[in-house]
Amino acid sequence: MAESAPLLDKKRETPLPTFTFAKDTPHGKRPQAIAHRGYKAMHPENTMGAFKAAVELGVDALEVDIHLTQDRVVVLSHDPTLKRCFGKEDKIVDCNWEYLQTLRTLKNPQPMPSLRDLLEYLASPGLDDIWVLLDIKLLLPSLTDAMLGTKAAKKLDDYADDLFRAIAATFADVKPSSRPWNQRILLGCWAAKYLPLCTKHLPEYPITHIGFSVDYARQFLKVPRVGLNLFQSLMVGPRGTWLLREVKRQKADRTLLFWTVNEESWMKWSIRQEVDGVITDNPQKYLEVRKAYNKHETISHTWASWKNILGWHWIFMKRGFSFRVKHGYWVDVQKVKKNLEGWISHKS
């Protein structure tokens, strides 16, 4: 059996995320416009101001990052600490929601929203077509704790379970508009060892693997319909070309997204690769590029851009071992299968 051959049968597949596929336009299919942490180029990231501004631009989707507070509220933040965006030394996991609500971003002061806040906004009339890529941020152990399986590592596994449980509870508590949340939410999973938590707590929701390693991403092709959301710079080169070809071969069952694409030339390159979505800090620029894109145009990149890409390849090659130890070496396909079987039996 080929390494990428699916190991689940058709009755136990994860949901198909048709809403994330490339859009039909008068000029052919084009990747969807996905605002990275909202309209981050113009507003404080992961704030309601950034999300609303992106929606007003006409984006197709929002990419948001989530963490869990001490009192089990799912909040929107990229970092596990408050230092960069709010100027506080605290960790989010050590704070209660009541305290976090009092904080304001350092730039253009805005509060930190909760996942509930975003869902309630998206349930408003006229926003049914906007979907969300949920980048589920997990707290990772040190390399030593991960290798030894210490109590500290086990505690972070418990945190991950609590986070997925809280996400599911939030979806259940907020009434959607005409489209159910599982047709508007794509779960972003970085870690192989936590993929079963998606199917345990949120079996009706489609999944994509978020990552930067071509080799690590390949194992997710063993699970039908799990898409890939990959760091665009690491997709340039022979291994990236191979993975693109393999995903396209399974295109009816998977989506392919690129992050974070901010240069105009790489936006055009991404469109040419026929991916399903482009995640960008500057959705206005991408919408303009997508509208004016000419498939016959010669695409050229600067030397600085190529140097940057080579640098990223070197950095993540060095981080590969540590990443696998902390995130899990392999997808537990049998556990994913068992969770889906339980969901199907419950539905029946």
TrEMBL record:
InterPro entries named among the record's database cross-references: GP_PDE_dom, PLC-like_Pdiesterase_TIM-brl
Residue span(s) of domain GP-PDE: 31-290
PROSITE patterns reported for this sequence: GP_PDE
Pfam hit, one: GDPD
SUPFAM superfamilies: PLC-like phosphodiesterases (SSF51695)
Stretches of the chain forming a coiled coil according to its record: none
CDD domains in the cross-refs: GDPD_YPL206cp_fungi
Gene Ontology BP, a term: lipid metabolic process
Name the UniProt record assigns to this protein: Glycerophosphoryl diester phosphodiesterase
Organism listed in the record: Talaromyces islandicus
